[in-house]
Amino acid sequence: MSGLVLALSVAAGLSYMAGWDWEISHKALLAWKGAGVGLLAVYAAMRARGPDGWLLAAVMACGALGDVLLDVGTTVGALAFLAGHLLAIVLYLRNRRRRLTLSQGLLAIVLVPATVTIAYLLPDDRAGPPLGALYALGLALMAACAWISRFPRLRTGLGALLFVVSDLLIFAREGPLHGQAWLGFGVWGLYYVGQLLIVLGVTQALTIRSPAATTRS
Protein backbone atom coordinates (compact mmCIF):
# COMPACT_ATOMS: atom_id res chain seq x y z
CA MET A 1 0.00 0.00 0.00
CA SER A 2 2.84 2.44 0.78
CA GLY A 3 4.22 1.86 -2.70
CA LEU A 4 0.89 2.92 -4.19
CA VAL A 5 0.87 6.08 -2.07
CA LEU A 6 4.40 6.88 -3.25
CA ALA A 7 3.40 6.35 -6.87
CA LEU A 8 0.38 8.62 -6.45
CA SER A 9 2.62 11.28 -4.92
CA VAL A 10 5.02 11.15 -7.88
CA ALA A 11 2.09 11.31 -10.30
CA ALA A 12 0.58 14.32 -8.50
CA GLY A 13 3.89 16.11 -7.98
CA LEU A 14 5.14 15.77 -11.54
CA SER A 15 1.79 16.37 -13.25
CA TYR A 16 0.94 19.48 -11.20
CA MET A 17 2.83 21.73 -13.61
CA ALA A 18 0.67 20.53 -16.49
CA GLY A 19 -2.39 21.75 -14.60
CA TRP A 20 -1.23 25.36 -14.85
CA ASP A 21 -2.59 25.53 -18.39
CA TRP A 22 -5.83 23.66 -17.68
CA GLU A 23 -9.15 25.34 -17.09
CA ILE A 24 -9.82 23.98 -13.61
CA SER A 25 -10.93 25.73 -10.44
CA HIS A 26 -8.40 27.41 -8.21
CA LYS A 27 -9.34 25.15 -5.29
CA ALA A 28 -8.78 22.03 -7.39
CA LEU A 29 -5.38 23.27 -8.52
CA LEU A 30 -4.44 24.10 -4.93
CA ALA A 31 -5.45 20.59 -3.80
CA TRP A 32 -3.41 19.16 -6.66
CA LYS A 33 -0.42 21.21 -5.51
CA GLY A 34 -0.69 20.03 -1.92
CA ALA A 35 -1.17 16.39 -2.92
CA GLY A 36 2.40 15.84 -4.12
CA VAL A 37 4.22 16.44 -0.83
CA GLY A 38 1.13 15.67 1.23
CA LEU A 39 1.21 12.09 -0.05
CA LEU A 40 4.93 11.97 0.75
CA ALA A 41 3.95 12.77 4.34
CA VAL A 42 1.44 9.91 4.27
CA TYR A 43 4.07 7.59 2.78
CA ALA A 44 6.59 8.56 5.48
CA ALA A 45 3.98 7.99 8.19
CA MET A 46 3.15 4.55 6.78
CA ARG A 47 6.85 3.64 6.85
CA ALA A 48 7.50 5.15 10.30
CA ARG A 49 8.76 2.71 12.92
CA GLY A 50 10.04 5.16 15.50
CA PRO A 51 10.61 8.85 16.35
CA ASP A 52 12.80 9.52 13.31
CA GLY A 53 10.18 8.17 10.93
CA TRP A 54 7.50 10.35 12.50
CA LEU A 55 9.81 13.36 12.38
CA LEU A 56 10.19 12.80 8.64
CA ALA A 57 6.41 12.60 8.25
CA ALA A 58 6.05 15.87 10.17
CA VAL A 59 8.68 17.53 7.95
CA MET A 60 6.76 16.56 4.83
CA ALA A 61 3.44 17.61 6.40
CA CYS A 62 4.90 21.07 7.04
CA GLY A 63 6.04 21.20 3.42
CA ALA A 64 2.58 20.31 2.14
CA LEU A 65 1.03 22.86 4.50
CA GLY A 66 3.45 25.48 3.22
CA ASP A 67 2.56 24.67 -0.38
CA VAL A 68 -1.09 25.39 0.36
CA LEU A 69 -0.60 28.35 2.71
CA LEU A 70 1.51 30.22 0.17
CA ASP A 71 -1.81 30.86 -1.52
CA VAL A 72 -2.90 32.73 1.62
CA GLY A 73 0.30 34.74 1.95
CA THR A 74 4.05 34.47 1.55
CA THR A 75 4.75 35.01 5.23
CA VAL A 76 2.42 32.32 6.58
CA GLY A 77 3.63 29.87 3.92
CA ALA A 78 7.27 30.60 4.73
CA LEU A 79 6.60 30.01 8.44
CA ALA A 80 5.21 26.56 7.66
CA PHE A 81 8.29 25.71 5.60
CA LEU A 82 10.56 27.11 8.31
CA ALA A 83 8.88 24.85 10.88
CA GLY A 84 9.62 21.92 8.56
CA HIS A 85 13.26 22.95 8.27
CA LEU A 86 13.61 23.09 12.05
CA LEU A 87 12.10 19.62 12.42
CA ALA A 88 14.41 18.34 9.67
CA ILE A 89 17.43 19.79 11.50
CA VAL A 90 16.42 17.83 14.60
CA LEU A 91 16.03 14.67 12.49
CA TYR A 92 19.42 15.06 10.81
CA LEU A 93 21.27 15.92 14.00
CA ARG A 94 19.78 12.84 15.65
CA ASN A 95 21.39 10.89 12.82
CA ARG A 96 24.77 12.58 12.46
CA ARG A 97 27.44 10.82 10.47
CA ARG A 98 30.18 9.55 12.78
CA ARG A 99 33.05 10.51 10.51
CA LEU A 100 33.31 13.31 7.95
CA THR A 101 36.00 13.91 5.38
CA LEU A 102 37.50 17.40 5.24
CA SER A 103 35.65 18.22 2.01
CA GLN A 104 32.33 17.03 3.43
CA GLY A 105 32.72 19.16 6.54
CA LEU A 106 33.82 22.21 4.55
CA LEU A 107 30.84 21.98 2.23
CA ALA A 108 28.45 21.92 5.17
CA ILE A 109 30.22 24.92 6.74
CA VAL A 110 30.36 26.98 3.54
CA LEU A 111 26.79 26.15 2.56
CA VAL A 112 25.22 28.21 5.33
CA PRO A 113 26.80 31.64 4.76
CA ALA A 114 26.80 31.14 0.99
CA THR A 115 23.06 30.40 0.88
CA VAL A 116 22.13 33.27 3.19
CA THR A 117 24.33 35.74 1.27
CA ILE A 118 22.98 34.72 -2.13
CA ALA A 119 19.40 34.87 -0.85
CA TYR A 120 20.08 38.41 0.37
CA LEU A 121 21.77 39.61 -2.81
CA LEU A 122 19.35 38.16 -5.38
CA PRO A 123 16.22 40.28 -4.78
CA ASP A 124 16.30 43.86 -6.03
CA ASP A 125 14.79 44.97 -2.73
CA ARG A 126 17.55 44.83 -0.10
CA ALA A 127 15.15 46.03 2.58
CA GLY A 128 13.00 42.94 2.55
CA PRO A 129 11.36 41.62 5.71
CA PRO A 130 13.65 39.99 8.31
CA LEU A 131 11.69 36.77 7.81
CA GLY A 132 13.44 36.33 4.46
CA ALA A 133 16.86 36.24 6.10
CA LEU A 134 15.58 34.02 8.92
CA TYR A 135 14.03 31.64 6.43
CA ALA A 136 17.23 31.48 4.35
CA LEU A 137 19.21 30.66 7.49
CA GLY A 138 16.83 27.85 8.43
CA LEU A 139 16.93 26.51 4.87
CA ALA A 140 20.74 26.57 4.79
CA LEU A 141 21.10 24.90 8.19
CA MET A 142 18.65 22.18 7.11
CA ALA A 143 20.69 21.40 4.00
CA ALA A 144 23.99 21.48 5.89
CA CYS A 145 22.66 19.10 8.55
CA ALA A 146 21.29 16.79 5.85
CA TRP A 147 24.73 16.69 4.23
CA ILE A 148 26.48 15.61 7.45
CA SER A 149 23.78 13.09 8.40
CA ARG A 150 24.10 9.34 7.94
CA PHE A 151 21.38 9.38 5.30
CA PRO A 152 22.48 8.70 1.69
CA ARG A 153 23.98 11.84 0.19
CA LEU A 154 22.87 10.98 -3.34
CA ARG A 155 19.30 10.97 -2.08
CA THR A 156 18.77 12.96 1.11
CA GLY A 157 21.82 15.20 0.75
CA LEU A 158 21.16 15.92 -2.91
CA GLY A 159 17.45 16.40 -2.22
CA ALA A 160 18.20 19.04 0.41
CA LEU A 161 20.52 20.85 -2.02
CA LEU A 162 17.81 20.81 -4.71
CA PHE A 163 15.45 22.35 -2.15
CA VAL A 164 18.00 25.12 -1.59
CA VAL A 165 18.38 25.81 -5.32
CA SER A 166 14.59 25.88 -5.73
CA ASP A 167 14.20 28.50 -3.02
CA LEU A 168 17.09 30.56 -4.36
CA LEU A 169 15.24 30.67 -7.67
CA ILE A 170 12.30 32.16 -5.77
CA PHE A 171 14.58 34.88 -4.41
CA ALA A 172 15.95 35.39 -7.93
CA ARG A 173 12.39 35.88 -9.20
CA GLU A 174 12.42 39.19 -7.32
CA GLY A 175 15.66 40.18 -9.02
CA PRO A 176 17.68 39.10 -12.06
CA LEU A 177 15.25 36.38 -13.17
CA HIS A 178 12.08 38.40 -12.86
CA GLY A 179 9.57 37.53 -15.58
CA GLN A 180 11.37 34.42 -16.84
CA ALA A 181 8.78 31.99 -18.19
CA TRP A 182 10.67 28.85 -17.19
CA LEU A 183 11.16 29.89 -13.58
CA GLY A 184 7.97 28.37 -12.19
CA PHE A 185 8.85 24.98 -13.68
CA GLY A 186 12.34 25.17 -12.21
CA VAL A 187 11.10 26.15 -8.76
CA TRP A 188 8.44 23.45 -8.51
CA GLY A 189 10.39 20.69 -10.27
CA LEU A 190 13.49 21.09 -8.11
CA TYR A 191 11.39 21.43 -4.96
CA TYR A 192 9.27 18.34 -5.48
CA VAL A 193 12.14 16.13 -6.67
CA GLY A 194 14.18 17.37 -3.71
CA GLN A 195 11.45 16.42 -1.24
CA LEU A 196 11.03 13.05 -2.94
CA LEU A 197 14.77 12.30 -2.70
CA ILE A 198 14.81 13.32 0.97
CA VAL A 199 11.97 10.93 1.78
CA LEU A 200 13.48 8.07 -0.20
CA GLY A 201 16.90 8.51 1.40
CA VAL A 202 15.66 8.76 4.97
CA THR A 203 13.17 5.89 4.74
CA GLN A 204 15.80 3.71 3.07
CA ALA A 205 18.29 4.31 5.88
CA LEU A 206 15.73 3.89 8.65
CA THR A 207 14.50 0.54 7.35
CA ILE A 208 17.94 -1.03 6.88
CA ARG A 209 18.39 -3.52 9.69
CA SER A 210 21.42 -3.25 11.92
CA PRO A 211 24.15 -5.90 11.67
CA ALA A 212 23.11 -7.21 15.08
CA ALA A 213 19.53 -7.69 13.92
CA THR A 214 20.75 -9.43 10.77
CA THR A 215 22.85 -11.81 12.85
CA ARG A 216 19.90 -12.75 15.04
CA SER A 217 17.57 -13.36 12.09
Automatic annotation (TrEMBL):
Keywords: Membrane, Transmembrane, Transmembrane helix. Coiled coil: none annotated. Belongs to the TMEM86 family. The keyword Membrane applies. It is found in: Membrane. The lineage of its organism: Bacteria, Pseudomonadati, Pseudomonadota, Alphaproteobacteria, Caulobacterales. This is Membrane protein YhhN. The chain crosses the membrane at residues 29-46, 53-70, 76-93, 105-122, 128-149, 156-173, 185-208. It is a multi-pass membrane protein.
